[in-house]
Amino acid sequence: MFEIGDLIIYGNTGVCRVVHIGKPELAGVHDGRDYYTLSPYYAEKSVIFTPCDNDRVIMRPVISRDEADELIREITSVELLTISDEKKREECYKEAIRSCIPQKCVSVIKTIYVRKQQRIAEGKKATASDEKYFQMAEEKLYGELAVVLELEMNKVRDYILGCVEG
Asked: How many CA atoms lie within 13 A of 85 on its CB side?
C-alpha cells in the first residue's frame, strides 16, 4: 500500500502523487473500500480516485534515482522490437507502453527511431502510427525520469543523450 505523499505511476496517466487515502466522499461510492486520491503530476488540476485494491490499472512506485541512472546506462543495450507485421507492431507498441515498464518504453523509442531513420533513407516519412507511439513512449518515460532526476521534462532527452554519448 502506498502512503500519502508517495509518487507513483498510475497506468496511462503516468506520475501521480498520493494526496489522500480513505473512503471518498463521492456520490455513488459506498462500497466500503479505501481509495487513493491521486493528483497527476503533469495535470495539477486533475484528481483521480481509485480503489486501493484496484487490479485493473497498473500502480507502482516511481523508480529510484539509482534505477534511473542504471536505466540510462543500459539504454544502448536495450533491444529493439522485431515485428514486421504493421498491425502486430502497433499492438506491440501499445502493450509495451501500457506495461508501465521503463525499459519497454525505451525499446519502443529506439525501435521507432531506427525505423524512422530507415524510412527517411528510403525517401519516406515516418508513419503516423510510429509518430504517435514514439510520443506516447517518450511522455511516459521522460515524465517519470524528470521527476526522479529533478529535471524539467523537456530537458530529459538531452540529459539522456549527454549520459549515453558522454
From this structure: 4
